[in-house]
Amino acid sequence: MKTATFHTQQSPRAMPHWLRRTCQALWLINVVGLPFIALAVFFFSLATAHAETARSPLVTLDDVKSGTLLLKSSEAGRYIEAPRVATDVDIVVSGPTARARITQIFTNPSNGWVEAVYAYPLPEDSAVHALKMVVGKRVIVGNIKEKKEAKAIYETAKAAGQKASLVEQQRPNLFTNSVANIGPHEQVVVQIDYQEPVRLSGDEFSLRVPLVVAPRYNPAPITQTADLAADGSGWGTTADPVPDRSKITPPVLDPRINAPVNPVSIKVRLQAGFALGEVKSHHHAINTETIDTQTQVISLAGDNQADRDFELTWKPQNAKAPAVGLFRETVGKHDYALAYVTPPVVEQKQEQRPREIVFVIDNSGSMGGTSMNQAKASLDYALSRLKPADRFNVIRFDDTMTALFQDTVAADRGNVATAREFVGDLEASGGTEMLAPLEAALNDRRPNDQSFVRQIVFLTDGAIGNEQQLLDTIAAKLGRSRVFMVGIGSAPNNYLMNRAAELGRGTFTSIGSTDQVDERMRNLFAKLESPIITNLSATFSSGNADVTPAILPDLYRGEPLVIAAKLGSLSGILTIKGMIGTQPWEVTLPVAKAAEGEGLSKLWARRKISDAEVESTLGKISRDEADKRILKLALENSLVSRLTSLVAVDTNPTRPQDKPLNRADVPLNLPAGWDFDKVFGEQATRKASLDNGPDVQFAKLAAGKKPVVQQAPADQLPLPQTATDAELRMIAGLMLFLASAGMFFFSRKTMGKA
Fold it and tell me: What is the Rg, in whole angstroms, of the alpha carbon atoms belonging to the chain?
């Protein structure tokens, strides 16, 4: 009997037809299809990676083909394009007040979503009260909130992808505007409104629009102030002299690499209220249109960048300013008044006592360039005005200090010549440690000597962040001295200058160019040499008037007394009294005849906030009491202050949650006339360097020019390390390709055996 034998392998010809076709199809897929699919996935991933890199907010130097500004990111070799700002300033001057609207146009030139942070200056006595944000055709009106609440609202909106704007006061003359969620290549417009009083000195009215925040020297945190407990235990705390240093140190362009940015336009409608004489712009070319004898429209001529302050002055046609002015405004149930009163120049005996003057001159790095020339010329002029009976000394400072003489010396020919030579040899360099020279100048070795009038003339740009330390020192150590501040350069710190002069019972003079030295120093010495108007008082007969300033200042020749008041009624008499030298002086103004004014309530509230700050510095009220007053005034009158901010939020989210948001501080210009090397170049070799926060540098890329990029800390911009998941897709494509190759060889082996 034969046994049947079964074989486990069959020849292809013995396979069923359908199975043979299926194997052939699989073989073709392995040989041709899978490798093709794998390669397609791989090259698609490369193309996607390239496309997404092009859409990323980060770019390489090769990606940029035209002039732009790049900020270094945390990823080596990749950058983010800096946001841009264009500013338009529109001002209406109506008699004693100026109403201004600043329009800031933020542009995001990058491919990513950006939060732009812009630091900008405003007049130190401006009342900032309104904010609007324009997104497309939508207008979002801002609200005044307590500072912490406003910040929380802004951060919540930022995280939700909503456009938002936050205006914060860092100093009375330094503000920041943060604008969140500006889309790729998008523009957002922000409008800010403020009011300020017009200044008057002698027969000249003036308006100053600060346009650039100067780099500030911030003493290292080791320079601390101690606050000992009142319980007598001897224990206390220390504080950083500049606790907000990161908020007042925006990045600054190197003018050797970059052309100026942040273009600005200004238009002023000047309605003086009297026939106009000379109208002059001191630092900018202007176009002027005359409307009538009392009205002109002034605008900047040509292209202008925000690199110096705009200063406009005007005089009456008859060369004599009105001696008095009284204006009123009704807001809700309350009436407000603003009065300008200039005491007459009375012929009297000159001050018979000689003067003891200490001149303090800043020769730090920020004074490099034309500022140093202006300061030296001003001090040389001052030394030439000394009389033999006077005594004087000269103190120069940067991050070190030198007193020319051990004590004040007689102003004889030899000593004055030595001083002029000393001043002529000064060069700008180093940091701005201002506290020590101020204390040295205030150190009065003969505090009870009334045979001399003791005066301090301080020449500086005031580019520091520890202003409060200096103001506290003046309040504590003034004694019989009087402090006269001379602001030097194209962008002086006017807040420090004015407040120091107020606390020092002196005056502030600004010198922005060398051609102003003679005239303005001559005017300053006319004040130094003239009797002052003292014992001033202001009363309203109708009663219940809240008058500011709370402490009326002494006045010097040509200076007006400016007071604001919240009135019980628009009736009665305003009476101002004082002593001009040894003669009593009095003037009365009928309140009912006051002219209509605008913005007086805001100016009153802003000045009341300053009163609280001054009284706190002088120790007349506690810090807590000052804060309570400031917060109440700011909220009731809708003002930005140290404790309140303006915030506007668009309710429509625009940024997708999967898109990262990158913060980028808008770069600022170096003030005109400053020397970049003197400010930043010597930091590494100086003991006390300019602490300018994160040292962000920029590169200008122009056609045909090799870009220059300097290293910056990686933590300045919290940018993503990668922009796409293309790497994962490329890996998947390669794995698919390898798998298909394996299947190909396996199928070949199987088919061969079949």
Answer: 34
